[in-house]
Structure formats: structure tokens, C-alpha cells
Amino acid sequence: MYVSRYGELVVEPQTEGIEGVGIQFKSGSVPWASSAAFAREAARELDCIVWCDPLPYYPDLDPLAPVVLEVDRSGERLFEVPDDIGW
């Protein structure tokens, strides 16, 4: 766990299929209006690739589809998570 200017931040290593970490705030109140807004800032500040929930920016997307919004410094795109990752 880390303490940031936005509150306590929990960083958890992924255990199946994906190289990376999961990030969440313990606080119920964060300054971002959506997970995509957080992903954009994290990608910019940490210079990394961030996956997040694409809704509500893509309302026609099936909420159960194995698709994430992938954000990095070069932009953002919908990304279909391969079956072998175990999403």
C-alpha cells in the first residue's frame, strides 16, 4: 500500500496471464470522473500502458465483452483481451 496525494493506493500484482499490476484507491472519493480519466492521467504520469473499463465512453459496447480501453502516451483504443490471458 502507498499513500498518495489522493489517499491510500493499493497496488496488487496480477497473478494470472497478465504482466502488470492492479491499482485501486481505498478512498471512496477520488478526483477523476471515470476510470478512463484516471487511466489517462496514470498513463501520462507513469509513462505506462493502462487498461480500464471503456464504459461510458462506448455505450454501444456489450458490458460483458472482454474488451478494455487501452491508454498510453500515444492515445487510446479498444483492446480485445485474448482468451489465454484469463480475463
Explained architecture:
By secondary structure, the chain is α+β, with helices and mostly antiparallel strands. It contains one helix and six strands, in the order βββαβββ. It has one domain (2-85). The chain has one helix spanning 35-46, and strands at 2-4, 7-13, 21-25, 50-52, 67-72, 75-80.
Strand order of the largest sheet: 1-2-3
Low-pLDDT stretches: none
Average pLDDT: 80
Main pleated sheet: 3 strands, antiparallel
Q: How many beta-strand runs?
A: 6
* Order of helix and strand elements from N to C terminus: EEEHEEE
Beta-strand residue fraction = 25-35%
- Overall tally of domains: 1
Number of helices: 1
| First-residue to last-residue Cα separation | 24 Å
- Radius of gyration equals 13 Å
Gross geometry: globular
Kindly summarize this structure in a few lines:
The chain has one helix at 35-46; strands at 2-4, 7-13, 21-25, 50-52, 67-72, 75-80. It is an alpha+beta fold.
Secondary-structure blueprint:
Layout: E1 2-4, E2 7-13, E3 21-25, H1 35-46, E4 50-52, E5 67-72, E6 75-80
Key attributes of the depicted protein:
alpha+beta, 3-stranded antiparallel β-sheet, 1 helix, about 35% strand, about 90 residues
